[in-house]
Automatic annotation (TrEMBL):
Belongs to the synaptogyrin family. This is SNG2 protein. The keyword DNA-binding does not apply. It is found in: Membrane. Pfam families: MARVEL (PF01284). Signal peptide: none annotated. Residues 19-158 form the MARVEL domain. InterPro entries: Marvel, Synaptogyrin. The gene is Syngr2. The keyword RNA-binding does not apply. Keywords: Membrane, Transmembrane, Transmembrane helix. It is a multi-pass membrane protein. It comes from Tachuris rubrigastra. GO terms for cellular component: neuromuscular junction; synaptic vesicle membrane. The chain crosses the membrane at residues 25-48, 69-91, 103-125.
Length: 158
């Protein structure tokens, strides 16, 4: 049955299978995985050094802002996914329709903002990758491309 803001009436029993089958929960899980991939690729292989110099630099055109931006939005997106996942778990237990409305609006607003930030991140990383010199890229090219790819996918998952 329909309830206030897409949830059943408050106080019902929690059904894990039904909960996981909800489209917003599936999208949130996918978004969290994409954010984790972007974050992990940039932290693990986003910084490299040359054999003759031990100084680390960002693989994206030696622009540290590109790596920091990708890492920052990846971490914050992952944490937001966890937060909104917990909101989704407790949402049916909230009986106040005003609270439900504010949670739904916060989720929509944050998702819109993060869609925009992922778009900016994709454009920024792609632009910096296009200016990267071949001699600066060795093994880390696949991780850089994965970060760009999953930044693009994140635009649609949010």
């Amino acid at each position: 049955g329909g309830g206030a803001y897409g949830a059943a009436k408050a106080g019902g029993a929690f059904d894990l299978v039904r909960f996981v089958q909800q489209p917003q929960v599936l999208a949130r899980i996918v978004s969290a995985i994409f954010a984790l991939i972007v974050f992990a690729c940039l932290v693990g292989d986003g910084y490299t050094s040359l054999p003759e110099d031990s100084h680390l630099f960002c693989v994206f055109n030696r622009n540290g802002d590109a790596c920091r931006y990708g890492i920052g939005i990846g971490i914050l997106a992952f944490l937001a996914c966890i937060f909104f996942f917990m909101v989704d778990v407790y949402f049916p237990q909230i009986s106040n329709t005003t609270d439900r409305k504010y949670l739904v609006l916060a989720d929509l607003g944050f998702s819109g903002l993060w869609t925009f930030l992922w778009f900016i991140g994709f454009c920024f990383l792609t632009n910096q990758w296009s200016w990267t010199r071949i001699e600066d890229v060795h093994i880390v090219a696949d991780s850089a491309r994965a970060a760009i790819t999953f930044s693009f996918f994140s635009i649609f998952s949010w």
